[in-house]
Amino acid sequence: MAPTAQSPLMEVEGVTVRFGGLAALSDVGLSIAPRSVTGLIGPNGAGKTTLFNVLTGVVRPQSGTVRFKGRQLRGHRQHHLAGMGISRTFQGLNLFGYMSVLDNVIVGADPLGRSRLPEMLTGLGRYQRDERELTDRAMSVLEEFGIADVAHALPATLPYGLQKRVALARALVSEPELLLLDEPASGLSGADMADLAATIRRCSRTMGVMLVEHHMDLVMDVCDHIVVLNFGQVICAGPPSTVQADPAVAEAYLGTPVQEAAGD
Ligand SMILES: Nc1ncnc2c1ncn2[C@@H]1O[C@H](COP(=O)(O)OP(=O)(O)OP(=O)(O)O)[C@@H](O)[C@H]1O
Ligand SMILES: [Mg+2]
């Protein structure tokens, strides 16, 4: 069921993923509402990244369905996502080390763009115009994130907090309707964390956000709705107050201090 009266942006039903004998996800169902933040939490190994990989077509589930804006996603590929209105960040940075910050962000806007080889070779006007437009868009996102001055630097030369911003800028440049964030706060310090919370809230004015995170303060602060996974199963779903009060959630985390589990 949708967490709000609006029809959901994404709906997951009965998703099961097995890796050999291990059920990484068992009959998982959830929905993501537009213009809201849905948290996905659970101890290490609970299946959060696997679920992201299902939503983005990296992992094919053995059973179950995923619908985006009412249409079933089947056999979709990662590089089609930006065109469909879905963006993600990765656990870790996943930036291209040999490309400048600006080019990393341009790739987020146009992951297929470099394959328009014929237009490139003939130097047709449309290609050049598109290139300029993409560069302008990428630069304005870098400006929004306060990192336009390092547009031509290689990511590895920047402090970690700035690299995380580049990863987020890359996900946002395509102006997605659904943004999937896998541990965006890992490795961030207090000030960067506050910035991230503000960015997530700002994003949720125009898009649905799904947030995987171990930092509970951030999760409870920014999420409208939270889904808790444990051993591949949804054990609780509801607003932050419901999740915080649920004894099954506390039990799932026993032996896995939530803050310590962050940043892996
Ligand atoms: N490609 C794979 N092959 C085999 N097992 C896998 C694969 N990917 C994930 N797993 C296993 O599936 C389970 C779920 O892993 P997943 O990475 O989804 O957890 P997670 O909730 O993201 O954990 P974390 O909080 O540590 O990032 C784990 O037991 C993991 O070892
Ligand atoms: Mg993970």
Q: Using DSSP, what is the number of strands?
A: 10
CATH superfamily of the largest domain: P-loop containing nucleotide triphosphate hydrolases
Helix content: 25-40%
Structural class: alpha/beta
- Going by CATH, the architecture of the largest domain would be 3-Layer(aba) Sandwich
Instruction: Tell me the distance between the termini.
Output: 32 Å
What best-fitting shape do the alpha-carbon axes yield? globular
What is the name of the CATH topology of the largest domain?
A: Rossmann fold
Sheet bearing the most strands, described?
Answer: 6 strands, mixed
Strand order of the largest sheet: 6-7-8-3-9-10
Describe the structure.
- Pfam families: ABC_tran, BCA_ABC_TP_C.
- Keywords: ATP-binding, Nucleotide-binding, Transport.
- InterPro entries: AAA+_ATPase (IPR003593), ABC_AA/LPS_Transport (IPR051120), ABC_transporter-like_ATP-bd (IPR003439), BCA_ABC_TP_C (IPR032823), P-loop_NTPase (IPR027417).
- It comes from Thermobifida halotolerans.
- With 264 residues, the protein is α/β, with parallel strands linked by helices.
- The chain has 2 domains: 1-85 and 176-264, P-loop containing nucleotide triphosphate hydrolases (Rossmann fold); 97-160, no CATH class.
- Helix content is 36%, strand content 22%.
- The protein has 10 helices and 10 strands.
- The protein has helices at 48-55, 81-84, 101-109, 117-122, 125-144, 160-172, 190-203, 216-222, 240-245, 247-253; strands at residues 10-19, 22-32, 37-41, 63-68, 71-72, 86-88, 178-182, 208-212, 225-230, 233-238.
- It has a 6-stranded mixed beta sheet with strand order 6-7-8-3-9-10, sandwiched between helices.
- Helix 3 crosses helix 5 and helix 3 (101-109) packs parallel to helix 6 (160-172).
- It is globular and about 50 Å long.
- The two termini are 32 Å apart.
- Mean pLDDT is 87; it is low at 113-117 and 257-264.
